[in-house]
Amino acid sequence: MVGERLASDHNAHIDQELERARQALGARLILAGMRDDVPAMLAAMDVFCLPSYREGMPRTIIEAMMMGKPMVATNIRGAREEVIEGQTGVLVPTRDPDVLAQALARLLDDSVLRERMGQAGRERALALYDEQRIVETQVAKVRELARSREPGGV
Fold first, then answer.
1. Which of 7, 89, 118, 144 is the most exposed place for a label (fewest CB within 10 A)?
2. Domain residue ranges of the chain, discontinuous segments joined by +
3. C-alpha torsion sign, points 41, 43, 46, 51
4. Residues 6+ apart with CB under 8 A from 90
5. Confidence grade of residue 56 (pLDDT, cut at 50, 70, 90)
6. Residues 11-52: pLDDT tens digits?
7. CATH assignment of 36-149, given 3.40.50.300, 3.40.50.2000, 1.10.10.350, 1.10.3370.10?
């Protein structure tokens, strides 16, 4: 697990859930904490998983898709706009560890599926979420709006 609990996170159950995970997984659970080498962490992954039950538009999914990682994410707003079920990854219900484990196992057991989904995710991320393209689109819209407000503007 990469990252750490944010001070703004008001979920009182996270610590209890992590403790249950520690008891169930033992040494297999690695809590990497906050990292400044995210590209290296993503490169080491076979599958990217974000089992969140509340998100906005998760940038982590886009970053992992850019690196060609197949996704397992919960079927919540934001994630379901980024991950295309069956094409770029698998969407699972929130708070269902059995279905989450099945989705992870399916991808970990099938290298061809991982490669196909990872490539599709990268293509999607490049087409929709390339930062340079988004900035250019925003600047063009602002210029268009500014021209329309000028006297005699279009």
1. 7
2. 36-149
3. positive
4. 70, 71, 72, 73, 83, 103, 106, 107
5. confident
6. 778 888 889 989 998 998 888 999 999 999 999 999 999 999
7. 3.40.50.2000
Q: In one letter, which amino acid is 59? A: R
Tell me, yes or no, if the pTM score tops 0.90: no
Residues found in the chain: 154
